[in-house]
Amino acid sequence: MSQETKLTYVTLLADPSIHPKYEAALKQIETEFGKHHPMFIDGRKVLAGEGEFDVRSPLDTKILLGNFQKGNSKYARKAIEAGKDAFREWSRRPWKERVAIIRRAADLMEDDRFKLASLITYEVGKNRYEAVAEASEAIDMLDYYADLMEQ
């Protein structure tokens, strides 16, 4: 995990270095808007035969974030079964391996913290301070639970 100062709602207000990183992330994700996205079930891309639906930003409903698959109960059941299978496999892994995977996920999220924050802004409508703090909090939660497993 990064040795940077933890970003909270309080520290964000005093940290001007977030602005260029956040602005760069906004520009990066804006290039992804309007694309068509499959569902992912059991690690595979799935296109539903039921068509797609638009997702628009609450900031401005003219902004098309993307087109997503209209799944139905058949796809939901497949996803639930895949989740059950994955859980069985996950629960058989040694706890130290699970901790390493959780820490790796936290590191990957840390690498993309400002991209995650900019997605939160467009998808939920939070301002930059709230979005960066929320992304940071999600990363901290993974580290927290990994720490608990190691205790």
Question: Helix and strand layout, with pairings?
Answer:
Blueprint: H1 9-12, H2 18-30, E1 35-37, E2 39-41, E3 44-46, E4 52-56, E5 64-69, H3 73-92, H4 95-111, H5 113-124, H6 128-150
Parallel strand pairs: 1-5
Antiparallel strand pairs: 2-3, 4-5
Helix pairs in contact: 2-5, 4-6, 5-6
Percent range for β-strand residues: 5-15%
For the largest sheet, list the strands in their spatial order: 1-5-4
Order of helices and strands: HHEEEEEHHHH
Mean pLDDT: 93
Quickly give the structural class. alpha+beta
Could you estimate the helical fraction of the residues in percent?
Answer: 55-70%
Largest beta-sheet characterization: 3 strands, mixed
Rg over C-alpha atoms, rounded to the nearest angstrom:
18 Å
SS field, number of helical segments: 6
Low-confidence stretches: none
**Count of individual beta strands:** 5
Task: Categorize the overall geometry.
Answer: flat
Distance between the termini: 18 Å
Describe the structure concisely for a colleague.
The protein is an alpha+beta fold and 151 residues long. The chain has six helices and five strands.
